[in-house]
Amino acid sequence: MKIIDLTERSDEPTRDLLRPVALAIKNGDLAILPTMTYYGLCADALNPDAVGRVFKAKGRDPSKPLIVLVDSFEMLKPLVEGVPPIARELEWRLGAKGLTYVLKASRRLPSELTAGGDTVAVRLERNEVVQEILALVGQPLTAPSANREGEEPPRNVDEAIRQLRDWIEIAVRWYSSSATAPTTLVDLTCEVPTVLREGTVAAADIAKVVDAA
Ligand code: AMP
Ligand code: MG
After folding, report:
1. I need a surface site. Which of 11, 89, 175, 207 has the fewest CB within 10 A?
2. Full domain range(s) for residue 88
3. Cβ(173)–Cβ(129) under 8 Å?
4. 9: left (phi over 0), alpha (psi -120 to 50) or beta
5. Cα 101 to averaged position of ligand 2 atoms, centre (Å)
6. SS3 label, residue 86
7. Residue bearing the CA closest to ligand 1, atom 17
8. What is the percentage of the chain residues whose pLDDT exceeds 70?
């Protein structure tokens, strides 16, 4: 297992330091990466074998679908049946604080990822390390929190490695996260957007954007 330490001074551009991570992910391996909330257990979201190992590593029930991270609406488009205008509005107003959307899944998504359901949870991820890796890989990543089921989501890389070292190929050491909540999960598959889990964004702030739209 390899650790890429981005907290150390280096003259190399971050993108070059992260190339081995992109390579591991393209190869179907698992990686621990910082996200805008907690550290995530990441893999190529479109590789069913890699997604299967994410479930095993976490000890996660295969009936619980995983989240998908993208860097743009462009990367999102082929993953879903359509992007409702309210998604762009919410992203523009509140995305930087942390919003995850439930949308109708494209039938091309691995059923492992969606747990056989017809929806998918997606986030336009704002963490700069993940953004670099998404640009290098050119594919969406799955990224549930990097903990075994039932444990606390990790705010630093060591805590994540402690739980998952046997499963991962590579990890990125970034600063400790100050997150106290996960992102807010909004279901956009119904007529009226519905908050499924209130996290970093208040449900009232979502209601304001929805009412004004
Ligand atoms: P997190 O990875 O903690 O930021 O949050 C993602 C959350 O979305 C988890 O609680 C998942 O169980 C949940 N989730 C993933 N896929 C779906 C889906 N298709 N519908 C509803 N919730 C989902
Ligand atoms: Mg979790």
Report:
1. 11
2. 2-212
3. no
4. beta
5. 16
6. helix
7. 121
8. 100
Residue to probe by mutation, ligand 1, list 63, 66, 67, most atoms within 8 Å of CB: 67
Tell me, using a 6 A CB cutoff, whether residue 67 lines ligand 1: yes
Q: What are the pLDDT digits (tens) for 197-213?
A: 999 999 999 999 999 99
Q: Which ligand is nearest to the CA of 185?
A: 1
| C-alpha separations of 64 from 11, 35, 51, 60, 82 in Å | 42, 20, 12, 7, 23
CATH number at residue 149: 3.90.870.10
pLDDT grade, residue 9 (50/70/90)? confident
> Nearest ligand, CA of residue 197?
1
- Write down the pTM of the prediction: 0.97
Determine the angle formed by the axes of helices 128-137 and 19-26, rounding to 10 degrees. Answer: 50
46 pLDDT more than 90? yes
The domain tally of the chain equals 1
